[in-house]
Amino acid sequence: MKRVKWFVTVVAMGTLFFGCKAKEQTAEAPPPEQPKAEATAAPKAEPPAAAAAQPEATASAPAPAPRSGYDRALLRAALLKDKAPDTFQVKFTTTRGDFVVTVHRAWAPIGADRFYNLVKHHFYDNASFFRVVPSFVVQFGISAYPPVAAAWEKANIQDEPVTQSNKAWLPDVREKSLPNTRSTQIFINLSDNVGLDRQGFSPFGYVEAPGMKVVDMFYDQYGDSAGPDQDQISKLGKPYLDKGWPKLDSIKTATLIGAAPGSREALIILAANDYVFESDASKFCRAFPFDKGRPGSIL
Fold first, then answer.
1. What's the pLDDT tens digit per position in 39-91?
2. Which of 1, 2, 4, 10 has the alpha carbon at shortest distance from 210?
3. What b/e string do you get for 90-105 counting C-beta neighbours within 10 Å, with b at 16 or more?
4. Residue 6 falls within a domain, yes or no?
5. Number of domains making up the chain
6. Which of 41, 187, 199, 289 is 20 to 30 A from 11 in CA distance terms?
7. Does residue 91 lie within any of the structural domains?
8. pTM above 0.90, yes or no
9. What domain range is 167 assigned to?
10. Positive or negative, the Cα torsion across 49, 55, 57, 63?
């Protein structure tokens, strides 16, 4: 069977937007579990077992997912500059199922480091896939929380050389094709968008093959011209999307899960936070035909 490749592009938020900004979602955290009542004590009391030693947290360990709200470290964007491992994986649990992104830092070190720090502090938790254009891209990366969106609005990173072509399921970070405007948003290419190479979109990882089916199921019937306004997502958060676009899929959690295996099934790019093109996406798809053998990629 022919191996299907998926490339992912990560899009970042910058200062200028084509009518788009970060979004807040009022995610409800699950209530803490209540301990179940124990049965009456056994006739003979037993000495308590020694408490198991808890592993000591390290500086590089990912922050635990907050039970409510968001990790307050996200409000200080300038301080989140840890260097990412050479390879690492991120598990996205979504309203459609799970998919895994594998990152190779050597492909785009600056973009990979940014993505690593955002995931480590649960930036993408509860965010929505607010733009899904069939045979073109899936876009996300606006924080579910307005204070966090505001903190990262101007936290741009520098461009870097394109070492991997923007094939299906390759991610990149950039702001509306403007130089040095990458920040937090991500595009998942749903077809081979090699035309983005010359625009400087730098892939840094890929979506593993089993997750391709999940991404392909994201709701895409609102249309590119009738979608939400990114400024309003940023300012009003999840209620804004729930009211106007209630069928959009979203991320429950995005979590670091360890080093990457040796296989490669899809690529990812960290891109700017806005539309990849201001022109009609269908025209671009006609210019760069969709390869049915390799669906999906992230910009």
1. 434 444 444 444 334 333 334 566 665 556 899 999 999 999 999 999 999 99
2. 4
3. bbbebbbeebbbbbbb
4. no
5. 1
6. 289
7. yes
8. no
9. 19-27+65-298
10. negative
